[in-house]
């Protein structure tokens, strides 16, 4: 099915965001593992895997629309130097991603590609959960203080 070229470009823009997120979350996961924060490592790693699934779905949709997936483009990767910076960077990335998904969903509706709109809505629901999870961790660091929070993140 030949898709709308503007929508295919927007899907590739979303793909770049997902590929960027994978890299950022994997680095954050490995940093946490190196620091001994196994629970945070698992948190970041699970989110990276979720983003990998999003990228895979986007690639599949772009191909279905007879477009060419662009996997060589990444956005700026923002690696935090400590856990609060990681969470802040991830929150910003997720907020930007949510904005981009909403805009692309609106575009899909505008070009009357309701299947792509519905497909994107499913991924947006995951992204909403990601930002909610990040905000929960940020709340915990605020309420407990960073030292106490981090003491709860090692796996013994």
From TrEMBL:
UniProt-recorded name of the protein: Bacterioferritin
Family of this protein: Belongs to the bacterioferritin family.
Catalytic reaction list: 4 Fe(2+) + O2 + 4 H(+) = 4 Fe(3+) + 2 H2O
GO cellular component: cytosol
Pfam families associated with the record: Ferritin
Main function: Iron-storage protein, whose ferroxidase center binds Fe(2+), oxidizes it using dioxygen to Fe(3+), and participates in the subsequent Fe(3+) oxide mineral core formation within the central cavity of the BFR protein shell.
InterPro entries documented for this protein: Bacterioferritin, Ferritin-like, Ferritin-like_diiron, Ferritin-like_SF, Ferritin_DPS_dom
């Amino acid at each position: 099915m030949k898709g709308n070229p503007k929508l295919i470009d927007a899907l590739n823009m979303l793909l770049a965001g997902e590929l960027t997120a994978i890299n950022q979350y994997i680095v954050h996961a490995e940093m946490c593992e190196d620091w001994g924060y196994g629970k945070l490592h698992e948190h970041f790693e699970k989110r990276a895997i979720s983003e990998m699934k999003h990228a895979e779905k986007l690639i599949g949709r772009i191909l279905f629309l007879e477009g060419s997936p662009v996997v060589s483009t990444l956005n700026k990767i923002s690696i935090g130097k400590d856990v609060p910076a990681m969470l802040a960077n991830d929150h910003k990335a997720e907020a930007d991603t949510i904005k981009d998904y909403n805009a692309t969903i609106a575009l899909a509706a505008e070009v009357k590609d309701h299947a792509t709109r519905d497909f994107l809505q499913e991924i947006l629901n995951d992204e909403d959960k990601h930002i909610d999870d990040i905000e929960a961790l940020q709340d915990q660091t605020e309420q407990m203080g960073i030292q106490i929070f981090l003491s709860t993140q090692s796996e013994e």
